[in-house]
Amino acid sequence: MKIIVALPAYNEEEALPPLLNRFADVSETFFNSKIEVVVVDDGSKDGTADVVRSYANHPKLAVKLVPHGVNKGLGVAISTGLCSALAQCAGDDDIIVTMDSDNTHNPGLMMRMAQLIEEGNDVVIASRYQPGARMMGIPWNRQLLSNGLSMMFRVVYPIPGARDYSCGFRAYRASYIKQAFAKWGDDFVSEKGFACQVDILMKLHMLGAIITELPMVLRYDLKPGVTKMNVRRTIKETFGLLLRRRLGRM
C-alpha cells in the first residue's frame, strides 16, 4: 500500500515549509518509506514553486512539483493533483490523500485515515462535525454558519457516512478515483471553485463508494494570511450544485 498526497497550492510560500516539515515528521514516526507529495502550483505569484523545489532531495519526502502556468482555480488544481497522484499509484488499493496547503490540516491524521481505508472504507473525510472535532482560530459566528450549512447539505442531498461535504482533507481508495476519471473524464471535477469538494463527494457516492469520517482539529490559527474563499459565492455555487444533482441534473 502506497500513500500519495496531492496538494493544490496558490501563493502558499509561507505555509508550505511548516506543512512539508510536518509531513517529514509523520514519515519518520509512522511510515517505513518516504511520503510521496505532489504539489500543484496553480499559477502562484510568489515563491511557492521555489519552496517546493527546495524539498527535491529531502531524505524523508519525495516531493514533485506540477506547475500550472496560470491560475486555473481550485477545481482544476485538485483534478491535476488527483491525476498526478493516480499516475504514481502501484495498485488499486493505494491511497490518495488531499488536503489544503495552508497548514490548517494535520498530516498526523493520515495514519488513522489509512487504517479506515484498510478496514473497508473507500473515502475517509477529516470532519469538522464529528464528536471530538475542533475549529481553532475561526470566529464563533463563522463556526455557527458552518454547522448550519452542514445540516442543510445533509437535508438537501444526504450521503450516508458524510457530515462534512466541503472539507478538502480526505483519503481516497485509488480504484475509485480511477473509476471516476474513466466515467466522467475531465468532468469528474466539473466545479472550478470551492464547490469542487462537494462535486467529488457526490460523484464517488454515485459510484457506490463507502464513505466515513473521523474528527479533526482545524487549525486556522496556524494559517498565514487570510482565506482565499469567497464565502457567499461558495455557498451559492454549492447549493446550486446540490439542487441540480437532487433534481437529477449533472
**What's the pLDDT, averaged over the residues?**
88
**Low-confidence segments, ≥5 residues, pLDDT <50?**
none
Largest sheet: 7 strands, mixed
Radius of gyration: 17 Å
Number of strands: 9
* Spatial shape: globular
Lateral strand order in the biggest sheet: 3-2-1-4-7-5-8
End-to-end Cα distance, whole Å, is 33 Å
Question: What do these coordinates show?
Answer:
It is a single chain. The protein has 250 residues and is an alpha/beta fold. It is globular and about 50 Å long. The longest helix has 17 residues. The chain has 8 helices and 9 strands. Helix 1 links the parallel strand 1 and strand 2. The strands form 2 sheets. The protein has a 7-stranded mixed β-sheet, with helices on both faces. A two-stranded parallel ribbon has the order 6-9. The mean pLDDT is 88. 40% of the residues lie in helices and 19% in strands.
